[in-house]
Design goal:
about 20% helix; 3 helices; five-stranded mixed β-sheet; alpha+beta; about 180 residues
């Protein structure tokens, strides 16, 4: 008797959302520019999740703005993991995003990444990897239960300060791809 392999379930989240699961077959995707995605899991409990936030936020922000803010979404993600059986002392995180995608005096992406790192440290959550900064957006694929993450750099306005070099005749299909286990 043969058994059909269970197909992978894909979930896509956008800015202001978070997702928690204990299903090994779920892969979550999101697309980031200056935003940050925190990928957090408890490897022993077999639960994990991801969020996607626009700005760090603060305690004085309005309820509507909170939905896209890091303070709110980091708390929602951690609380969702704890409700699903995770333990705070076993949580481990990867951070992605925080690119400098627009010219401004304030590097929003850098501030987002710094906020996320401060949050993890303050909450005692281990930082185990990821990729923040740079000049390009990213597509993230994350398997919350295993902790596997794949980053694919997006083409586009790489650096608005410098001209984009002319295209080359050959393309490396793995260029810009990073996979963490």
């Amino acid at each position: 008797m043969t058994s059909a392999a269970k197909t992978e379930n894909r979930v896509h989240i956008i800015q202001g959302e978070f997702f928690v699961t204990s299903d090994r077959d779920v892969m979550v995707t999101t697309i980031l520019g200056s935003c940050i995605a925190a990928c957090i899991r408890d490897p022993l409990a077999g639960v994990g999740g991801i969020n996607h936030f626009l700005l760090p936020g603060d305690l004085g922000s309005t309820a509507a703005a909170d939905e896209r803010m890091g303070v709110h979404l980091m708390e929602m993600l951690v609380n969702g993991l704890l409700k699903a059986g995770g333990r705070r002392d076993r949580l481990e995180a990867k951070l992605f995003g925080g690119a400098s995608t627009v010219r401004s005096r304030s590097d929003i992406g850098k501030h987002n990444a710094e906020f996320a790192q401060r949050f993890l440290k303050a909450e005692g959550i281990s930082y185990v990897g990821g990729s923040t900064g740079g000049l390009q957006g990213r597509r993230i694929q994350y398997w919350p239960v295993s902790g596997r993450a794949r980053q694919i750099l997006l083409a586009g306005p790489a650096n608005i300060e410098r001209p984009v070099p002319p295209p080359t005749a050959t393309v490396d299909v793995n260029a810009g791809e990073l996979e963490l286990f």
